[in-house]
Amino acid sequence: MNDSVALLQLRGLEKSYAGHSILSGFDLTIFDGEFFTLLGPSGCGKTTILNMIAGMEMPDAGSIVLLGNDISQVPAEKRPINTVFQSYALFPHMTVFDNVAFGLRMQGVEKKQIKPRVLEALEMVQLAHLADRKPAQLSGGQQQRVAIARAVVNQPKVLLLDESLSALDYKLRQQMQLELKRLQRKLGITFIYVTHDQEEALSMSDRILVMHQGKVQQLGTPRQIYENPANLFVARFIGEINQLDGEIVSVDGDHTYDVKVEGLQWTLKAQHNFTAGDKVHVLLRPEDLRVEYIDDFHASQYLVGTVVERNYKGKTLDSLIRLGSGIEVLASEFFNEDDPSFDYRPNQKVALKWVPGWEVVMPAEKSEVAA
Amino acid sequence: MRIFSKLYIALILSLIYLPMFVLVINSFNQSKYGIKWGGFTTSWYTKLFNNDGLIQAALNSLTVSVIAATAATVIGTLAAVALHRYQFKGKALLSSMVFVAMLTPEIVMAIALLIVFISLGITLGFISLVIAHITFCLPFVIVAVYARLKEFDMRMLNAAKDLGASELRIFIEIILPLILPAVISGWLLSFTLSLDDVIVSAFVTGPGYEILPLKVYSMVKVGVSPEVNAISTLLLVVSLTIVIISQLLIRKDKTQ
């Protein structure tokens, strides 16, 4: 990934349907060769952005700049951008070979160059042996690969993927995630992936843009977004999270605060600036929490609660624990059958601890958006 | 119960096909009045092919039907694609008008067309016949092609556009191959509708241009001659062939 080259710039994009604004003043810069993901629930505007980049929809205002050229008025068929559609949208009357060759033929590529290029693209997605089949004779995963080959054979500057894996079953989806990532590295083409699946976004992307109701919630690497969510929406949308309410007691120094949570006082680090008396949320990922026997510790230093439920999940053991204030938190621990501490029973009193610094402290949000 | 249902089916089938069967037999019957079997003959067919007026009317009919069916198919196909693909003002009105045109009593359409031709000063004859036949065939083509278009996931047209295809290339390379069976059956349907139309044709044709159904009709007025049986048998063969062709097309399409 070459950070210094801005490949695609969206500037002040506006779009509304029937007077209802979908996007307004939307800016985004995408770098050459990166795997970029637009992540958000349905209706957040991510597909509209994708359609505008592809040229299927025209922005009401603003510009789309590709390598220094404004392409906002260029029709879709003339843009060096290709799309892998959610429904694959393969041509049912053509063979796999003809499907992949279609883009090259439309561009007027010389006939004798078409065959090697198509076969190379099919080779890349391991489908060269099925070149003579019709799409209806292929499995979902194979059709998906044809759709990818059909797009990348044109050597686009940007490849757009619209929820491209959502029609596949879980196992195949995971396999395709790996394949897509590998393909992207090999080709060096910039991928813009649209999805509502946070797991997909985290595992494939170089950078993720989290959106909600047409607004940018957070832009960052998967790690930044998971470990330091910018707001409650991002925190809840990306994985499971426990939310505790607290209040700043005093400022201890640079981004270090004494915070009162669940009737106890903690020294916590935070990215935000707070003053004493501020209401805050303390967020903890289930996998960062450890459940321990209460008599191993001085109860006053740890959160104390009772076990409500235990769910065996195979690789993890999930415990739902009710704290003194009535809030229920989820702790997810890797299963270790030799560890006696896994023998908790419902209604047992336990202590909850976590590695200091793994918590996220953010200002309390009054009007909370449901994730 | 099984016997009863079989009898029932036999009754219905004989109601439909017995008259036709009698007609076909009679076209080979030496006895002129067709009341009793007078021996096998093909003389009525020979007589038929020697009847210049009848042959001319048949050729006229074929000319009108081929031109009208072809024109209706081209216009109807484009109209169906436009109705399916593009958003424009009056689209809903236009698509419901298609059905209105289909359900309009033929006599109403015949009078309406006659008024149009007279007020535009179009001489009644070949031209007026062709225009009239295109008009009543058009809705059938539109409906057939439109139904076919609705079967496909037309997001593939966006994919074609995305891959650099112009509207014309999309039509030629994607839409046309997919709807071809419907286009062909639309043509065949138009051809048969046009070939045996009596009511509209009777109103809009002129004395100088005689077509087969009208000629047959005028012949029958003086009694059903064995020649009429012969020409009807030939027409039956033509329409059966067309039905078989369109059924084969549909079946081939389904197995694909």
UniProtKB/TrEMBL annotation, chain A:
Alphabetical keyword list: ATP-binding, Cell membrane, Membrane, Nucleotide-binding, Translocase, Transport
Record keyword Metal-binding present: no
Name of one Pfam family that matches: ABC_tran
ABC transporter domain mapped to chain residues: 8-238
Ranges that cross the membrane: none
Source domain of life: Bacteria
SUPFAM superfamilies: MOP-like, P-loop containing nucleoside triphosphate hydrolases
Self-association and partners: The complex is composed of two ATP-binding proteins (PotA), two transmembrane proteins (PotB and PotC) and a solute-binding protein (PotD).
EC main group: translocase
Function: Part of the ABC transporter complex PotABCD involved in spermidine/putrescine import. Responsible for energy coupling to the transport system.
Enzyme Commission numbers on file: 7.6.2.11
CDD domains noted in UniProt: ABC_PotA_N (cd03300)
Species, as recorded: Catenovulum agarivorans DS-2
GO molecular function: ABC-type putrescine transporter activity; ATP binding; ATP hydrolysis activity
The encoding gene: potA
Gene Ontology CC: ATP-binding cassette (ABC) transporter complex
Protein name: Spermidine/putrescine import ATP-binding protein PotA
Family: Belongs to the ABC transporter superfamily. Spermidine/putrescine importer (TC 3.A.1.11.1) family.
Catalytic activity: ATP + H2O + polyamine-[polyamine-binding protein]Side 1 = ADP + phosphate + polyamineSide 2 + [polyamine-binding protein]Side 1
Gene3D superfamilies in the record: 2.40.50.100, P-loop containing nucleotide triphosphate hydrolases (3.40.50.300)
SMART domains, A to Z: AAA
InterPro entries: AAA+_ATPase, ABC_SmlMolc_Importer, ABC_transporter-like_ATP-bd, ABC_transporter-like_CS, Mo/tungstate-bd_C_term_dom, P-loop_NTPase, PotA-like, PotA_ATP-bd
TrEMBL record, chain B:
Sequence ranges assigned to domain ABC transmembrane type-1 in this UniProt record: 58-246
Matches recorded under CDD domains: TM_PBP2
Topology within the bilayer: Multi-pass membrane protein
TM region positions: 7-28, 54-81, 93-120, 126-149, 170-189, 228-250
A GO term from the CC aspect: plasma membrane
Keyword entries, A-Z: Cell inner membrane, Cell membrane, Membrane, Transmembrane, Transmembrane helix, Transport
InterPro entries: Bact_Polyamine_Transport, MetI-like, MetI-like_sf
Subcellular location: Cell inner membrane; Cell membrane
GO biological process, alphabetically ordered: transmembrane transport
Primary localization: membrane
Pfam families: BPD_transp_1
Family: Belongs to the binding-protein-dependent transport system permease family. CysTW subfamily.
PANTHER family, per database record: PUTRESCINE TRANSPORT SYSTEM PERMEASE PROTEIN POTI (PTHR43848), SPERMIDINE_PUTRESCINE TRANSPORT SYSTEM PERMEASE PROTEIN POTC (PTHR43848:SF5)
Its biological purpose: Required for the activity of the bacterial periplasmic transport system of putrescine and spermidine.
Protein name: Spermidine/putrescine transport system permease protein PotC
Lineage, highest ranks first: Bacteria, Pseudomonadati, Pseudomonadota, Gammaproteobacteria, Alteromonadales
